[in-house]
C-alpha cells in the first residue's frame, strides 16, 4: 500500500517535480520514497512497506529496464501467480507482489488484469511501446487521478499531488457539487476539481502518441430476472460462500507485518474478525470507535465480540467536540465536500491503529452491497409491494419494520410513512425507483444553493446522468439486483471506499483490506437468487446462514444498524469552533458564491437551537461547511476561482 505520481509527454518536469508531487502524498507511504525519470516519462513513489520489506522498493524496473512500475495496493494472489510464472521460466529478483505485475504484463500485456486478485492502482512505463499503461482495481478500492497540462499527462494517487504541477489550479466543479448534493459523491471520472479526472473502477488507460484511451476490463453483472439460477440448494450455496469468504480472508492476511481488524460490533466486521482470528499467528488485534451518544454507540457489541474471539481489543472514543476538531483535516484528505460526518470517527480510528504500531487492517465493508444488507433494499421491497397493493392492511406495519434504530420514525402515522418513503410517488419502471427517496431527500439540500449556482445548473440533473451510465442489461435484472448495482457502482467507490475508506486510513498510513470485495466472491453473490440475500425483510440471509457458527447469537441475529455519526450536532454546543463560525458567516458564504448567505444563516441558527435536526438540514449543514473548508484548503475561501460563475 502506497501512493504514486507520474507524468508522460514532452516537457522539462523531471525529478524536482516528482519530488514535490510525492512529498504531497507522503502520508500514504511514510517508509520510503523512490523516483524514476527520463526525458518524457517519470514515476514517483511513497512506500508503505507491507510485502517484500527488504526488496520491494519502487518504482521498480524489470531486468531489461524497459518496463517500470509504480504501484499502490496489494495483489493478494501474488504467491500463486509467482509460482505459475516461475513454472514458465520467469526469474524473480524480489519477494514482492509488485514484480509479479511486471512479469505478468510482460507476458500478457493488458490482459494481465484478468488474473490479478487485489486492490490496486498502478502505472507501467513501457519504453518499448513508448506508452504509459494505467489501471485501477475492479471495485474501486484504490484511487487514481489524472489531468493534462499542455502536451503532458499527469497522474497521482491523490489530487493534492497534481496541484504541485505548474499551471494546474484548484477550482470547484459546479456539476460535481450538484452530484455530491444529490448522490453523495461525484460520478467518476468527474471529481470536485474542474479539469481533474478520476480513472473509473475496473478500467484501464493507455497514454500513447499524444492520445488517451480508456476501456473497462471487468464489469459487475447480474443474471436476467427470469433466468433460472444455478444456486437452487441453499445449504450448498452457503457452503460455497463460506469457502470463498474464508479464502478471501486468508489471502488478505498475507503480509510481512501484523494484520489487525476493525470491529464495529455489527455482523460484517464480526465475521471478518472471526475468520481472521484463526489465521493470525500471534493473535488478532481489533479496533473500534465508540460514541458518547447512545444512538450511535455500539461498544456493547464490540466488547462482546472481542471477548468471544479473545482478541487484543482497543477503542478510540469519539466525544462531543472531537468531530469538529478533526473535520478540517478530514476534508483535506477526502479532497471533496461531503454531506455526512461519518469519515471523521474513522479518521480517528485509523490514527489509533497507527499508534498501536500496525499498518494493515481488515474491514467488513462491501458486505452490505454484495449481500443486500442496507435498509434501502428492504425499503425498496416494501415500497414496491405497497405500490402494487395500495389498500393492504399490513402496509403501515411493514413501514414500521424499516429503520428500527430511528424510533421517531416508527411513531409516525401510516399516511406520513407512506409519504416519507414515496410509496406511490414514483413509477415502478423508473430505473432509480429503489433510490428515489434517498435522492429526493438529499437533493432537497440544494435549496441552499445560490442563485448563480442554480442558474449555472439549470439544465442539469445528476439523477439523469446516473441513469445514462447504467448498462443495457440493467432493465432485465431483478429489482433487488438493480438496487444493489446502484449501490456498488456509484456510492461504494464514490463515497464508502473513498471518503470513509482509503482516504481516512491512508491519512495515517494504514492499509484497509476488504474480504467481501474479493471479485470472486462478488461474482458468486451476484449470481445468487434474490431471496437468498434478502429473505422477506431479513437482510444478508445467506451470509448469516454461512457463518452462524462463528458468532454469538446476539451478533449473528442482530439487525443491520448502519454506521453513523452525529452530524450538525457535532459543530454546535461543545463542538462549536471558531472556524465553523467563520466558514458559515454571511461574508464567507457570500464570497464563495455557491450558497445563499441568508438561508445558510437561518440553517446555522436552526441547527444551533435544534441539534436533532432532520436529514435535510443535517446533510445541508455538513455539505455547506465541508464545501467552505474545501474552498479554504484548496483554493482560498472567497477567491474568484471559487465562484460558481
Automatic annotation (TrEMBL):
Q: Which pathway does it operate in?
A: Amino-acid biosynthesis; L-asparagine biosynthesis; L-asparagine from L-aspartate (L-Gln route): step 1/1
Concerning CDD domains, the annotation shows: Asn_synthase_B_C, AsnB
Q: Which EC class does it fall in?
A: ligase
Gene Ontology molecular functions: asparagine synthase (glutamine-hydrolyzing) activity
Q: Which UniProt keywords apply?
A: ATP-binding, Glutamine amidotransferase, Ligase, Nucleotide-binding
The chemistry this enzyme catalyses reads: L-aspartate + L-glutamine + ATP + H2O = L-asparagine + L-glutamate + AMP + diphosphate + H(+)
User: Which residues does the UniProt record annotate as the domain Glutamine amidotransferase type-2?
Assistant: 2-210
Its Enzyme Commission number?
6.3.5.4
Q: Which family does it belong to?
A: Belongs to the asparagine synthetase family.
Protein name as it appears in the record = asparagine synthase (glutamine-hydrolyzing)
Q: Which organism is it from?
A: Bosea rubneri
